[in-house]
Amino acid sequence: MKYSLPKKNKEFILTPSMDEMKPLVESNHKLLDKIPFLDLRTQLRRAVFKELDEKPIVACGHQPVIYHPGILFKDMVVNALIERYGFSGLNLVVDSDTLNNNRYIPLPFFRDGRLNCEEIQLFQSERNLAFEEISPPDRQKFNQTLNYISKNCKDWVDRESLEIYRKATDKAYPVSRNLAQFNTFSKRAFEERLGFKHTEVFLSSLCQSKAFIYFFSLILFSCRQFVTGYNKILEIKLKQSDDIVELPFWLWKEGEERTTLYIKFNKGSTWICGGDREILDIDISKIDPLIETIDNLKSSYKIRPKALMLTLFARLFLCDLWIHGIGGAKYEELNDRLAQEFFSITLPEYAVASATLYLNFNLPDITDEEIKDLKNTLRKMKFNPENFLRGQSPLIKTKEELIKKMKQAKYKKELHNQLMVTNEKLRNKITSQIQDLEKTILEKERLKKIIINREFPFFIFPLNDLKSMSEKLIF
Question: For strand 57-62 and strand 321-324, is the pairing parallel, antiparallel, or unpaired?
């Protein structure tokens, strides 16, 4: 099923609806009670929630970036389910992802008498490291950046929210060992003002669990069968040959960049490899010794699932309902097929949630229809400039006569060329009008792009706007 981002302010997508969530979660819970590795699932869930009491668990997940309200909406849905139905809820922090373009956040500024959108750098990393390998930002520089935002964003930044976020980062610094923790703890402290009660769970910690070791070992044990099934389902194929098999997992040592995990078959030996580097000679002929080998390996190397494997693991071992954003939802249909193909298990159904919240710039609305009308006018100016002339011109009569002749002539090429030259001369007489309209269109398109930017950071939006979005789900 295809999903589209909500385009209107305060519009959201939630499938299924809140009223339909309770029976779905309970149905999923019963379905998962029948899986063959139920003990490992129960053990993992109890490690996350010490007092589980067999409550269903609803979960969402994301990289530990600076959220915009559309991402935050998934947390809102989880917390609404906690409030309405008494479920347990969590956000899975994908701290194995890399910083990439998330060093920057978009912010609105007023420059040279007009509204602009600029990218401000919040985080730095010279290498392409996972979030769990990157140190928290320098405290003094980070606060300077927040001061800069406060000073230069003027009326479009909510002062209360920004100050709450500043205090949230102050709380996060002493307890954060890496950037993933800093961003997560800062967000979570801010969310306390929204009344959120969910638990933040880091993927890196789940990957130490017996459940994950078993999950990975099971795939490793039948790696050729798994990759064959995977490649039948997905367009982007994993590498597979007589001597090498690619698995959808990351492998790296602390402080290193991530590498794709491969299994290499060489002269009767089987090696776990990180990229081109042979890491460990393993025996994949028996599952129990293999599980023990992988359990020992985790003390020196980090094994993390890539995107599909992450949600497959979460849906099998962790939660009763996984709540995806629109971007990730398209992959879950593939996971449904993969789980059936490899594990012979029907995965529980998932939900999809996203929302759009715009900043209030106190500017007139700029609609698509308005811009379309202006472009139509511009087109008319270029093709029929005589209708926009101020005053008369003999060129108008010349154009009319050429058009009349063309209707009667057999050979029109020369007349057409004359008509184009005449029209160009007429157009030259309204050059300034055309240029002014072109500038107007460009400016309106530029402003509209800023006004409907849904990716501004959550901490510059009015707290009441965020509360209002959240409360709509509860009541």
Answer: parallel
